């Protein structure tokens, strides 16, 4: 698949850690894997704003969700924002207790900085601190889909075979293809009924080109 024509935030561009690392995504930890899988966020700062005026892209965790296939996976969503956004106005409730009787922890208190020091942080760092305190829904809104999964490696082409047999008086090269196919199908049926993965033998594997 040619991904060059896809928007930068298309999930096919974000589906593996190697692709994200190659595209320059960063996170709160030096390891992008730890940033996403443990801290739940990564970002990419653009040199120039995109067509929507966004110059910072975020990937953030939606938590573990039960997907359509019944498997529980750690899922993600993404968003673009402008670094010119005034976080104290955009999310004023995070800095103002209003009529609340209990004291709200501020992002500066979370990081051990003074309010002035925190205001001097890069925009993406401020968003990350708010994300840690208040979760994705309060910052990016409700996700109305299950999200996308980030695999830890690019797709690999894995070659394997299976041991099947046929009873015949013919030499192997003289056996009709239809008889070989029929024997292979019977073997596959038996493997599926037995749910026996050990019936397959590993041959080789190689990493697919990034465009696949």
Kindly describe this structure.
- A hairpin with a 5-residue loop joins strand 2 and strand 3.
- The chain has helices at residues 17-22, 32-39, 87-90, 107-111, 115-119, 123-140, 177-194, and strands spanning 41-45, 56-66, 72-81, 156-162, 200-207.
- It has two domains: 11-140, no CATH class; 157-207, no CATH class.
- A three-stranded antiparallel β-sheet has the order 1-2-3. A two-stranded antiparallel sheet has the order 4-5.
- Helix content is 30%, strand content 19%.
- It has 212 residues and is an alpha+beta fold.
What is the count of distinct domains? Answer: 2
- Broad structural category: alpha+beta
Number of strands: 5
Biggest sheet architecture: 3 strands, antiparallel
Strand order of the largest sheet: 1-2-3
Tell me the distance between the termini. Answer: 5 Å
Q: Helical stretch count?
A: 7
Order of helices and strands: HHEEEHHHHEHE
Helix content: 25-40%
Compute the average pLDDT: 86
Shape: elongated
Unreliable residue runs: none
Share of residues in strands:
15-25%
- As a whole number of angstroms, the C-alpha radius of gyration is 25 Å
Q: Oligomerization state of this entry?
A: single chain
